[in-house]
Amino acid sequence: MSGTRSKSLTAALAEAAEALDAGRFFEAERTALGVLENARQASDFSMMVEAIPTLKAARKERVAAALKAGDGRIRHLEARPEEDESVEPGCYLVEPPLVGADARALRLAGLEQEVPVVAVCREPLTQMNLRPIVAIGRITVRARVLPADEDANPDLDWFLSSMNEIGETAIDSLDSGAAILKQIDGLMDRLDSIPDHERLHDVLEELCRIASSTDESD
After folding, report:
1. What is the bridge-based pairing of β-strands 131-136 and 140-145?
2. Residues 61 and 83 sit within 8 Å (Cβ to Cβ)
3. How many angstroms separate the CA atoms of 57 and 218, rounded?
4. How confident is the prediction along the chain (218 residues), in pLDDT tens digits per residue?
5. Which of 10, 44, 83, 129 is buried most deeply by CB count within 10 Å?
6. pTM for the predicted model, two decimal places
7. Rounded CA gap, 53 and 59, in Å?
8. Contact status, residue 146 vs residue 106, Cβ threshold 8 Å
9. CB 127 within 8 A of CB 143
10. Which residues make Cβ contacts (< 8 Å) with residue 214, sequence separation at least 6?
């Protein structure tokens, strides 16, 4: 990686940290994610290690803001919003006939409008009476969870548990026997689909640390 590019990423990451400290978590998330993606393109795994904590912290702040705005309530979304419709902050349960792509569109609209939202997309119950949860991005991740006690109106505990379960499913689906770079790219894809899962960031950071150490020893 060229010194100029490295300095540029270092400066951008400093800007992300400054934005996070100032409470501008949307700006921090955008900037830190840009650093992470550019560092991966340059195979600068040390920079990726540096960027991930800021990205994770910014996303944690965004999720906290969405939960606070929701005040424990879950918004049910069963119809696509109008194209120019403003997104309301809070927690959204995206349900049929909407699909995972609609949940992703809602999340991206929230990011664009700088409105904190968290979305979980659920599919119809299976024959085994399990509730599929799906996330779509660069890849599709699907987990099957127990339905909520009150399935028609799940509470926040079920919502958060489902968010965690799909992230854990994404981690478990990674081929831990694959080459380290393939694992890193697999986690980057999973993080694109499920950006609000904290441990996905932790696992990616650890793999990047290993890759960085390997580069330094070569």
Report:
1. antiparallel
2. no
3. 32
4. 556 667 899 999 999 999 999 999 999 999 999 999 999 999 999 999 999 999 999 999 999 999 999 888 999 998 887 777 899 999 999 999 999 999 999 999 999 999 999 999 999 999 999 999 999 999 999 999 999 999 999 999 999 999 999 999 999 999 999 999 999 999 999 999 999 999 999 999 999 999 999 865 44
5. 44
6. 0.94
7. 10
8. no
9. no
10. 180
C-beta of residue 74 within 8 angstroms of C-beta of residue 124: no
Closest CA to 192 of 55, 5, 75, 22: 55
Q: Is the dihedral of CA 199, 204, 207, 213 positive or negative?
A: negative
Please give the single-letter amino acid code of residue 20.
Answer: L
Residue 49 to residues 1, 37, 70, 159: CA-CA distances in angstroms?
Answer: 15, 12, 32, 30
- Beta strands across the sheet bearing 117-122: 74-77, 90-94, 117-122, 131-136, 140-145
CB proximity list for 159: less than 8 A, separation 6 or greater: 74, 91, 93, 120
